[in-house]
Amino acid sequence: MKVLKKQLSGMKQMNFDAYLKAFKSKEISDSYITWLEKEFDYKWFNQKPNYGMDIALEEYLIKYGVFYPKIYGSKELSLSITSEVLERSYSFMKKYKKHFIYIIEETEGYWESLNHHRVIHMCCEKTGVPADRIVYMNNDITLEERYNEWFDEQSKYKTKINVISHPFLLMNFSKEYNRLMKWIDFPKYEIVKYKDRKTLPTKKFMCLMGNRSWIREHLWYYFTDFANHPLKEKDGYVSYLDKNVTLPNSWNDKEASEDNILNGESSPAYDNLHHYFKDSYFSIIPETSNGIYVSEKTTKVLYHGHPFILIYPAVDIESPKTGMLEKLREWGFETFSELFDESYDDLPLIKQPILNTHHAWYEDLKNDENKFRLQFILKNIKKLVDMDIKDLHKLCESVEEKCIHNQKTFLNLKKPYETLLIKLKNIVKKQK
């Protein structure tokens, strides 16, 4: 490990990839690493996170922090958080004079319903590991606000852990699209202005839906109940994997099949959606129900440059507002008040007592607040669908520059990295 410390000190003079290669080439004999490999078949190098991270962030985390391992692979994070592993991680942290242990849930936004925060606090209390040496990171944009509310309402624990919201998924898909655009056979997608197109869109909207949620069920019935609603099949492109409904040829035959899509396997390399985005004017995005965060559903729309209405079906959390449009604007994106009444972003999320896991689902809405949210959303959609397609064209043409801006911002996204680094540096500063 002396060699490692020497390498760390010279990190600024080295290319990070070269540094990491050199790091990996050395035999790691620390008892903590050896124990992880023996007890859990843990591959230290292969399983260190780089999901949605740039080089500067990776460098900082390696220099100042210790990654808490997901010792049970892809299983739920809370199962990996144990007193024994935390205690050994803390010893490793002290031995190599690091400042914090970082725990990451990088692929989802849930945490409260699965008690990540409670498990961490319980393990800290049991082991004596100072809670302020823990940095927990998650995609959920409401993480910091909701954790602080929970902590202030309880009296058992006296010291907060550090919690940071960071859009790992958004950043990772930005990296992935940039990587794929270097492929010779990957269809690079550029937004062509309406005035330069040979053909104009024939559909008014797109709506890609995966697993079942209450909002997707109601949208599906709204789209398909032609007898009672004004929507017609010709108005939009709709998929719903829960109903085994896909858009024909919407996958890349070289990389995937329809079975991959129906199994919920989503990747930019799998998608063949360019035609559908070109042939429609705006997107309805029924986002994930597992918190409030950006998933691949939104990144597809940002990459293809569609105006959008962004709907969160989450009913397993309580929050005074969704706030995602506000967060997107904070990251540098444009939203579309020209098309939609964006006060929908300020409607409250009301936690349902009947729900005890993020997987729970029920057919009927249980309270007036959610009924109001649904009706408000449908009114926004109906307004555009009822519009003459020529008028809709003019409206969408007026926001073309916003769409182009969003695609460029998505492919060159830096602001979330900068924000996260500032927060980490403040944590380290307090501990010095």
Give your account of this protein's structure.
- This protein is α/β, with parallel strands linked by helices and 432 residues long.
- It has 2 domains: 2-166, no CATH class; 173-413, no CATH class.
- The protein has helices spanning 2-9, 16-25, 31-40, 55-64, 77-80, 83-95, 116-127, 143-153, 168-180, 214-224, 258-262, 274-278, 296-304, 324-330, 368-385, 389-397, 400-411, 415-431; strands spanning 65-67, 100-105, 134-138, 162-165, 203-209, 236-240, 280-286, 308-311.
- Strand 5 (203-209), helix 10 and strand 6 form a beta-alpha-beta unit.
- Helix 9 crosses helix 13 and helix 13 (296-304) crosses helix 17 (400-411).
- The protein starts with a helix and ends with a helix.
Main attributes?
8 strands; globular; disordered N terminus; 2 domains; 432 residues; 4-stranded parallel β-sheet; alpha/beta; 18 helices
Q: Which percent bin holds the helix content?
A: 40-55%
C-alpha Rg (nearest Å)? 23 Å
Distance between the termini: 23 Å
Structural class by SSE content: alpha/beta
Total discrete domains: 2
> Strand order, biggest sheet?
1-2-3-4
Q: Uncertain segments of ≥5 residues (pLDDT<50)? A: 1-14, 354-363
What's the short story on this structure?
The chain has 432 residues and is α/β, with parallel strands linked by helices. It is built from 18 helices and 8 strands.
Write the layout of secondary structure elements.
Layout: H1 2-9, H2 16-25, H3 31-40, H4 55-64, E1 65-67, H5 77-80, H6 83-95, E2 100-105, H7 116-127, E3 134-138, H8 143-153, E4 162-165, H9 168-180, E5 203-209, H10 214-224, E6 236-240, H11 258-262, H12 274-278, E7 280-286, H13 296-304, E8 308-311, H14 324-330, H15 368-385, H16 389-397, H17 400-411, H18 415-431
Parallel strand pairs: 1-2, 2-3, 3-4, 5-6, 5-7, 7-8
